[in-house]
Design a protein that fits this description.
By secondary structure, this protein is of the alpha/beta class. The protein is built from 17 helices and 14 strands. It has an 8-stranded parallel β-sheet. It has a two-stranded antiparallel ribbon with strand order 5-6. Strands 11-12 form a two-stranded antiparallel sheet.
Length: 471
């Protein structure tokens, strides 16, 4: 297995895009694309006209041309939709998605990995969240069709994933048990995916990618190593200073004066115990600085995972005007990250970068009308008649209450789905003509991103980050 010194984090929705992952892989490290909401990203790229032809180039290599043609015909707009025109909606996932939903999502994951791997011999990974379960199977299959080298997954306990990779590699059908609120002990809800049925014939045999679990404790590492459905190839040990979703503190939630979760000694991962498992591991969370790689190696790691430093480089998917705004805030000393215990509908603490034009600003948040039209963080729940329903604490409050949720669960929740999509310049146009406001996440070391700027430069590249970290 390839042991990179640096793994580039799979961030946000399209922040870790194929351009960034490709640049990191060409530089000899592990580039990683984000696998979150790629169906929406692909549909909106096509509606924007695919101006540079990259999507079309990838679609031409998809092994099932009829599927690629259907998606192209459904979403492509020559020259792009007009300014102020909303994007065509993408169907929401369910436990039993329609074929057109599976086709778009499978193709989207193929496209992102294919473009990241094109034209070089470096290896590429894709990052998924365990909490987002319903798209997982078609996402993994699409990435494997493109020859993805690593699957990374956190935000949960992904015990089922290694076995799923084994089955997909053999062309076999798979099942993923769903976490359903209110399910009785005798009920099992699951989503399935059959490669042969999807392909309309014999399923292809595929390369089995390496699986890296993103963890925060030795206990979870040991559980995954011993009880997963297949082989775990390594771990990324992530501390609470990392961007995105953080593991909650152990024990009852206690908040600081700033309203942030308080982490203590019990939350520090035991690296000695993790090393004793015998699998390679990488350290993540504030390792994006010169000298930190050497410290990680001394602690027994084979390398580090770095996200925030790459998030604001030239190749990342964050809209250029937002990156420029964040770098200006760096020079004025005003960059600040708030670990919000309520923002994410998942219930996990979520790092929110404080930017005035984003929903981190209370005025922007309060002015936004609640809507749940992407639905990745909806929770499946058991309805009174025993069937599945779907609800999200960030959806309109009346809708959530009607589905059996409590008003307390809706307080402070932010629409992470729409906010992250807006961050990469693909925000939906709302009824009143406004664009969905962005939501930025970053690790605590965002306050140090200026260290990668060369004298006289206002931006930096992925190669600049890698050179600094390896120096």
């Amino acid at each position: 297995m390839f042991y990179p010194k640096i793994i580039q984090g799979g961030m946000g929705v399209g922040v870790s895009n194929w351009v960034l992952a490709r640049a990191v892989s060409i530089a000899g490290q592990l580039g990683v694309v984000s696998g979150t909401a790629l169906d929406v990203v692909l549909a909106r790229r096509l509606q924007s006209g695919d101006p540079e032809g990259h999507v079309r180039r990838a679609l031409d290599h998809f092994p099932f041309p009829e599927i690629a043609r259907r998606v192209w015909d459904q979403y492509f707009v020559e020259g792009g939709i007009a300014p102020g025109q909303p994007y065509k909606p993408v169907p929401l996932f369910s436990a039993n998605p329609h074929q057109n939903v599976l086709e778009l999502n499978t193709l989207a994951n193929f496209v992102e990995v294919f473009l990241a791997k094109a034209g070089h011999a470096g290896e590429v990974g894709i990052n998924f969240l365990e909490k987002i379960q319903m798209p997982t199977l078609s996402s993994i299959f699409g990435a494997m069709l493109a020859g993805v080298d690593f699957i990374l997954m956190g935000a949960g306990i992904p015990r089922a994933i290694p076995g799923i990779l084994d089955h997909f590699a053999k062309g076999e059908a798979v099942k993923l048990k769903l976490d359903v609120e209110g399910a009785t002990p005798d009920q099992e809800f699951a989503t399935t995916f059959d490669p042969a049925q999807f392909c309309g014939g014999e399923a292809p045999k595929l390369k089995r990618p390496n699986f890296l679990a993103i963890i925060s404790s030795a206990t979870l590492a040991l559980t995954l190593a011993r009880k997963s459905s297949g082989k775990v190839d390594g771990f990324i040990v992530e501390g609470e200073t990392a961007g995105g979703h953080n593991a909650p503190p152990r024990g009852p939630m206690q908040l600081s004066e700033k309203g942030e979760p308080i982490y203590g000694e019990r939350d520090v991962p035991d690296l000695v115990k993790i090393a004793q498992i015998g699998l390679p591991f990488w350290l993540a969370g504030s390792y994006g600085a010169p000298g930190r790689l050497a410290q990680a190696l001394v602690l027994g790691a084979v390398g580090i995972q770095v996200g925030t430093a790459f998030a604001f480089c030239e190749e990342s998917g964050i809209a250029p005007e937002i990156k420029g705004q964040v770098l200006c805030e760096y020079f004025t000393g005003n960059l600040r990250v708030h670990t919000d215990p309520l923002a994410s509908p998942t219930g996990f603490p979520f790092k929110v970068l404080q930017v005035d034009t984003s929903v981190s600003n209370a005025a922007v948040y309060n002015a936004r009308s609640r809507i749940c039209d992407l639905g990745y963080l909806r929770h499946p729940y058991r309805k009174e008649d025993g069937t599945l329903g779907y609800r999200c604490p960030a959806e309109p409050v009346a809708n959530y209450l009607r589905k059996g949720g409590s008003e307390e669960e809706t307080q402070g929740r932010k629409c992470v789905c729409n906010g992250l999509v807006s961050t990469i310049g693909l925000g939906q146009v709302l009824k009143e003509g406004a664009i969905e406001p962005p939501l930025l996440t970053a690790g605590d070391d965002v306050v140090n991103i200026g260290q990668f700027l060369k004298p006289g430069h206002k931006s930096y590249t992925a190669k600049d980050v890698i050179d600094a970290l390896l120096a």
